[in-house]
Amino acid sequence: MTTSLQAQLELGCAALGLELTAAQSEQLLAYLDLLLKWNSAYNLTAVRAPVQMVTRHLLDSLALAPHLRGERLIDVGTGAGLPGIPLAILFPERSFSLLGSNGKKTRFLFQVKTALRLDSMQIHHARVESFQPPERYDAVLSRAFASLADMVAGCRHLLAPSGCFLAMKGTYPTQELAALDPQCRVEAVHALAIPGLDEERHLVEMTIQHNGVAA
C-alpha cells in the first residue's frame, strides 16, 4: 500500500509542478500514517481511506505552495495540521505556526512535530482572538476555518505590515467576497486544480488597506 501511495503522491506533486525529495515524500507519508493511527481516538478527519487522504489532505494542501509569501506563516484553525504540516515539510527553511483551540488535535500536532522532527514548526493551543504572537506573520492561512469576513476580522492582529491572507475555499465564494470590509483588498482568486479531485478549489489572496496603502 505504501508504494502505491508514494506513487500517487509523487505523480500528484509532479502535476502540481512540485519536486519532492525522497526524505520529504517519506515525511508526508509518515504524517499520513500518524493521521490514520490517531484518527479513531482523536476524530481528526472524516476522510478514512489512505488514497483519499493523499488527494484531499496532502495534495490539496500542497497546491498552495506556488502562492505562499514570506518566511513566517501561520495556519489558523489548523485542525489535524492542514495545510500547515504538508507545507512545513515542503518548505523546511520557512517558519510555520499551527494554531488550534482543540486540545486533542493540538496534542496530535505535537506528536507529529516530534516524530517527524519538524523543528521549524511551532504549535499553539489557543483561540485565535486570544493569541498574541511575539512577532506578526507574513501570511495567515486558513482551510475551511471561517467566512472570509470573519477570517479578516478575527486574524488581522496576526498579520504583519505588507502581509497577506490566504484562504482556501471550495466553489468560487461570490457572496463571501461581496461581504468583505472595504479596507480588505482582494489581490487574486486563484483556481486550484487538485490532481485526482473532481471538485472546485479556490485560494483567495487578500491584504488590508490603510488609507489606500497595503498594511
Explain what you see.
The protein has 215 residues and is α/β, with parallel strands linked by helices. The protein has a single domain (2-214), classed as Rossmann fold (3-Layer(aba) Sandwich), CATH 3.40.50. Helices cover 38% and strands 26% of the residues. It has helices at residues 2-15, 22-42, 50-62, 84-90, 103-116, 148-155, 174-178, and strands at 72-76, 95-100, 121-125, 137-143, 159-169, 184-192, 201-210, 213-214. Strands 1, 2, 3, 4, 5, 6, 7 and 8 form an 8-stranded mixed sheet that branches. Helix 6 links the parallel strand 4 and strand 5 (159-169).
Please name the defining characteristics of this protein.
215 residues, alpha/beta, Rossmann fold, eight-stranded mixed β-sheet, globular
Number of helices: 7
CA radius of gyration: 17 Å
**Which class of secondary structure composition applies to the elements?**
alpha/beta
The coarse silhouette is globular
**Average pLDDT:** 93
In short:
This protein has 215 residues and is α/β, with parallel strands linked by helices.
Task: Please render the helix and strand layout as text.
Elements: H1 2-15, H2 22-42, H3 50-62, E1 72-76, H4 84-90, E2 95-100, H5 103-116, E3 121-125, E4 137-143, H6 148-155, E5 159-169, H7 174-178, E6 184-192, E7 201-210, E8 213-214
Parallel strand pairs: 1-2, 1-4, 2-3, 4-5
Antiparallel strand pairs: 5-7, 6-7, 7-8
